[in-house]
Design brief:
Chain lengths: 425, 312
């Protein structure tokens, strides 16, 4: 099926394009025009026409945790959020530390997922932080990155070997930055609220120490380390200094770390429990600065579904994480473009497309002729409220239920096929 | 603290939630129950025909016995459930346990849990009044109330007094509840202990933090000593008991620095010779056993106000 997306504001940062015009799709690919066929015509007046958005930090929970989320439902939630490509984390059961598990994920995704699903593999066997996973075989099986996300390799020497090895096979290393000794049993940001409530604190230094470690190892090994879900002011400062020197490090920010602070935990709402935790106002300000000056180059959700019964427990006993795919774009548009005017709309699109595509070294994130037609249509001014009970995800563990947001994806197109148009297609 | 009109209070979750009036109302009510303690038949019919469930997920001697006896003296039917370890380890969620027990239509559920926020969660899952008997390191409201009651009955008033809390403040729910209560009633509070257990961040709560016990003791009207649990604590919080005693123990020598009318308090159980000298614990300034007795009156008052039908 061919397609003409008419009269939208085409924002294609990779090609430095920002103009009102028509976008053509022929045989699932971006084309120069659609002569000699009867295309489907989509009116995009008043809308942004962007390359399909990429979220490189998503937990799809399969294999192993199908009561929280499946590849199928997670992909639907992604489509509803405007994402055409998602990168799934390896903390499944079994852990994605073998080529056969990667093959299973890819097969399953090809069968049931309405968006592109790219798997990551583990850094260490079983995410135990003790022995290297077969990183070369994982790369051959098609992982786009290696990470022990949810856990963090504590042994600096092992991490060094992993980074050196990953460089050889050409995959970037993602890291969930958490020093286990400093963090201990911490569940909330160490500060005023942890003191008041008596909850074990998770100090910012527990993240910053590992971000610094990663800067040193990226430099030593001359290979890219991407710091996931950066939450602390000091991490931004460390990354800024390192990137200015040309060290191959990057950082991503999740919407909850901008939308909320640790004040939100005072009623012990386990939907405000995530790892790293919600931090203080100063940290939010530093993250915004880091986004404004380019220190933070990527936005991601850390979509982490958990069933209701798992979250309906005592705060310190509850699992970390919240769902995020469907609220992510609205929250970032609201916080970064509308409210704080931190960045322009094209910059926001860049952080969701070109930047993650470059990090992952995948052929996506642009609207160049010949590219797979992954396209997201966004109404940046649409005011809507999120109803978690109507989520496409299997889980509704979110602190943003009922939030009024401004800006939303109204159509998601994957390889020339509409998979979401205000409802699943 | 608002709820159905027949009750004065709905739940007792934390001292932080209460205002000065609410605290004083509980203390006043406890005073009226104090009289019952002196009777030969120590029983009033206030909760007759009503059920109180004590749900204790942590080992406890004084708090659980105090609540049980308080409920019995109010003529309630009492069910006491003890379980070591958390509900999570046990395999049944707290929510399921609470909903099961709620099927008995109790007037009140008293809950002690190793998890911060447990009492507040329970309050969302049951129609019964919920009384927090200690939630993790967060709060232990009835302990603070009985401490306030003890101070008030010995000193006449709390406003203007200088109360010094010594020891493991970071991990202490007793300390947190006391801090909130004392500040609301107008006392001045100083926390003393090693910087690892009494971090500066506590000053944000409105108290003074000091690491020099000898400088603080002469101006104290009350010293409240917290149990030092070296066995439970990760060792790196302080080097050892010997050094702790040298820096922060209320030794005989240090006891001489106290004003003669300074009260010595301890929530128990005491480590004699560690946080406090054994003779001082039994001495004239000690009100440690008064605290235990007063605990009964306070818990009767709380059960009555939360679980009973108020009569003017």
């Amino acid at each position: 099926m061919n397609m003409v997306i008419r009269n939208g504001r085409i924002i294609d940062p990779a090609n430095k394009r920002d103009e009102v015009g028509d976008l053509f799709v022929v045989d699932g690919k971006i084309a120069g025009d659609v002569r000699n066929s009867k295309p489907e015509v989509i009116d995009a007046s008043g809308l942004i026409v962007a390359p399909g958005l990429i979220d490189l930090h998503v937990h799809l929970r399969e294999p192993g945790f199908g009561w929280k989320e499946t590849i199928e439902t997670g992909a639907r939630a992604a489509a509803a959020g405007g994402f055409t490509t998602i990168v799934c984390m390896p903390n499944t059961s079994p852990v994605a530390d073998s080529p056969s598990t990667i093959a299973w994920i890819k097969d399953r995704a090809a069968e049931v997922a309405c968006v592109n699903v790219l798997p990551t593999g583990a850094i260490s066997k079983g995410l135990m932080g003790e022995e290297l996973a077969p990183i070369g075989s994982l790369a051959q099986a098609g992982v786009v990155a290696i990470t022990d996300d949810g856990r963090c390799v504590q042994n600096n020497e092992l991490m060094r070997r992993a980074v050196e090895y990953a460089r050889m096979v050409g995959v970037p290393v993602f890291d969930h930055c958490q020093d286990y000794n400093l963090v201990g049993t911490g569940v909330v940001h160490e500060g005023y609220w942890s003191t008041l409530l008596g909850l074990p604190g998770w100090p910012s230094a527990g993240e910053e120490a590992i971000v610094m470690r990663n800067v040193l190892l990226a430099e030593l090994c001359d290979h890219h380390i991407h710091c996931q879900h950066v939450s602390a002011a000091g991490s931004v400062r460390i990354l800024r200094e390192a990137r200015a020197r040309g060290v191959k490090v990057s950082g991503e920010v999740c919407p909850h770390h901008l939308a909320l602070t640790d004040e939100a935990i005072q009623n012990f709402d386990t939907n405000c429990k995530m790892n790293p935790p919600l931090r203080a106002q100063e940290d939010v300000a530093a993250l915004l600065e880091g986004i404004a000056d380019g220190t933070i180059s990527i936005l991601a959700s850390d979509h982490a579904p958990h069933a209701k019964f798992e979250k309906e427990v005592e705060f310190d006993a509850a699992p970390f994480g919240i769902v995020g795919l469907e609220t992510e774009l609205g929250l970032f548009l609201d916080l970064l473009v509308h409210k704080n005017k931190t960045i322009s709309l094209p910059r926001l699109i860049e952080m969701f497309t070109v930047n993650p595509a470059q990090l992952l070294q995948i052929d996506a994130g642009t609207l160049s002729v010949g590219q797979a037609a992954d396209v997201t249509l966004i109404d940046p001014d649409l005011e809507w409220s999120f109803d978690a009970s109507k989520s496409q995800s299997m889980s509704c563990n979110t602190p943003f239920d009922g939030w009024k947001l401004k800006g939303r994806a109204v159509r998601t197109i994957v390889r020339g096929k509409t998979v979401w148009a205000n409802q699943p297609v | 603290m608002t709820g159905p009109s027949h009750r004065l209070h709905r739940h007792l979750i934390s001292i932080e939630d209460l205002d000065r009036d609410a605290i004083e109302r509980i203390l006043d009510r406890a005073e009226s129950f104090d009289e019952v303690q002196g009777r030969e038949i120590k029983k009033v019919p206030a909760l007759r025909g009503r059920t109180v469930v004590n749900l204790f997920y942590e080992a406890s001697t004084r708090t659980s016995s105090s609540f049980e006896l308080a409920a019995k003296r109010l003529s309630a039917d009492v069910v006491s459930i003890r379980s070591t370890g958390s509900s999570v380890e046990k395999g049944e969620s707290l929510k399921d346990t609470v909903q099961t027990l709620s099927a008995y239509d109790p007037a009140a559920i008293v809950i002690r849990s190793p998890h911060v926020g447990a009492a507040q969660l329970v309050a969302g899952w049951t129609p019964a009044a919920v009384i927090n008997a200690g939630d993790g390191k967060h709060e232990h409201p009835t302990q603070a109330l009985l401490d306030l009651y003890t101070i008030r009955s010995k000193k006449g008033a709390i406003a203007g007094l200088h109360v010094v809390i010594i020891g493991d403040v970071l991990f202490s729910r007793v300390a947190r509840s006391n801090i909130f209560g004392l500040l609301k009633l107008g006392a001045r509070v100083t926390l003393v202990g090693p910087s690892t257990l009494v971090p500066r961040v506590f000053e944000k709560l409105g108290v003074t933090v000091s690491h020099k016990l000898d400088e603080v003791l002469p101006t104290a009207d009350v010293v409240n000593l917290l149990r030092i649990q070296h066995e439970r604590q990760r060792k790196e919080y302080f080097p050892g008991i010997g050094e702790y005693i040298r820096l922060f123990g209320l030794t005989k020598e240090r006891g001489k620095k106290l004003k003669p009318d300074c009260l010595i308090m301890h929530p128990g159980p005491i480590n004699r010779g560690v946080e406090i000298d054994s003779d001082l614990a039994d001495g004239a300034q000690s009100v440690i056993l008064d605290q235990v007795t007063n605990g009964l009156a306070i818990r009767m008052a709380v059960l009555y106000l939360c679980g009973g039908i108020a009569t003017p």
